[in-house]
Amino acid sequence: MAEPGAVDAYDATRRAFELGATVRAMREQRGWTQTGLAEAAGMTQSALARFEAGGTVPTLALLERIAHAFHAQLVVRFDESSPAA
């Protein structure tokens, strides 16, 4: 990844995919449809599908609405990272 900013773009895409996969897993564990979760979170099914696929980066407000729909707590944390080599 020699292009400037490519690593940052890759990391942002990876995080969006991981968030979407986590929400999808939680939804499926509960036996919910995308439509059911979308309605509970105040969004459209198509927007939820894009999010679960990692195609969009959600806002904190959206994550809060999804957490509320799951009766879960949204936790955001910072982890120390290793210095760049």
From TrEMBL:
Keywords: DNA-binding. Gene3D superfamilies: lambda repressor-like DNA-binding domains. Residues 23-81 form the HTH cro/C1-type domain. GO terms for molecular function: DNA binding; DNA-binding transcription factor activity. This is Helix-turn-helix protein. Signal peptide: none annotated. One of its GO terms (cellular component) is cytosol. InterPro entries: Cro/C1-type_HTH (IPR001387), Lambda_DNA-bd_dom_sf (IPR010982), TransReg_Diox_bact_type (IPR050807).
